């Protein structure tokens, strides 16, 4: 067997074949959770490994500039390798890091975020803070979506999550990262299964004290919500304090774009004089208005509409020098027109919240181009332990010279 170190790289194409077994030294963990090994200069991605490990892997996919392989054996294990809590780990595609000690997960995620923001966002690595750990790395999710698929060889219905290596459904009896109440619901679904394959079932623990429509977004980690609000609130209060120090009578506005059911606007309403939330999902807006009444946060309003269509009118109503804009867009990031408008409006502060660092870095790069905004701080929070995902909150301030 040729080792990764012994196999020479051939210029102009791949150096391994599908089905070939390789001995690889894992040099890093890429964003997405796969380990990075090399055959010469040719990259081979392998899941469920740790930096420094020596593994045997079987090539399952070969592209022009990289290959993917399946882990067969760990020949030299990392001291940070641990026994996964879930028996489905390694087949189910939901988790990528259960084989790693939690401290190692946090360190890896911080490096991934820093590398990504430097490469795509143009931000300095020292702007990125350490990852805020989740105090409960298992049993934290308040929402899961399970799928049904007919298992023809076994003549039964599989109910669970997609496998990491194909489009088939791994039959799941328990999800270790889900709230125990969700696992009770899952057992109910399995006892009374869907009538056929190809159906999706959303299971959710309704957040206490919040009206949330069935298909509307709400943060999936209830355990980390207080810390997320704390980080966003610290950024907001810092800008408000600076603004009022310069102008003691300043009235501060919070504009919460992509506001969903109004979570951030209502949690932070006490820190500002007035807020407004904008969301395209009209059911979410109705829920936000209910939540505002229920919580007594009546110093603002919620508007149904597309961010890029509503923002110009808001810019005419609010003094941008005394305004914080909070962005919490879907995974695809902000609409390009919304980013362009923010560069024109130039609010005193933009707080960007995202579970997708790549699209967030792309948007920050545009917002900070030509020195319009400056990224003061980025705080990653581990809202998704055991998985490749990470939440980030960025504090952007308008540069004084612009």
Distance between the termini: 61 Å
CATH superfamily of the largest domain: Vaccinia Virus protein VP39
Instruction: Look up the CATH topology of the largest domain.
Output: Rossmann fold
CATH class of the largest domain: Alpha Beta
Helix content: 25-40%
The gross shape turns out to be: globular
As a percent range, the share of strand residues is 25-35%
DSSP, total strands: 17
Strand order of the largest sheet: 13-12-11-14-15-17-16
Largest sheet: 7 strands, mixed
CATH architecture of the largest domain: 3-Layer(aba) Sandwich
Radius of gyration: 23 Å
Provide the succession of SSEs.
EEEEEEHEEEHEHEHEHEHEHEHEE
Low-confidence stretches: 1-11
* Rounded mean pLDDT score: 93
Distinctive features:
402 residues, alpha/beta, OB fold (Dihydrolipoamide Acetyltransferase, E2P), Rossmann fold, 7-stranded mixed sheet, 6-stranded mixed sheet, 26% helix, globular
Write up this protein.
With 402 residues, this protein is of the alpha/beta class. It folds into three domains: 1-81, Nucleic acid-binding proteins (OB fold (Dihydrolipoamide Acetyltransferase, E2P)); 109-134 and 219-398, 3-Layer(aba) Sandwich (Rossmann fold), CATH 3.40.50; 143-204, no CATH class. Helix content is 26%, strand content 26%. The strands form three sheets. A seven-stranded mixed beta sheet has the order 13-12-11-14-15-17-16, sandwiched between helices. It has a six-stranded mixed beta sheet with strand order 1-5-6-4-3-2, with no helix packed on it. Helix 6 (307-317) packs parallel to helix 7. It starts with 20 loop residues before the first strand and ends with a strand.
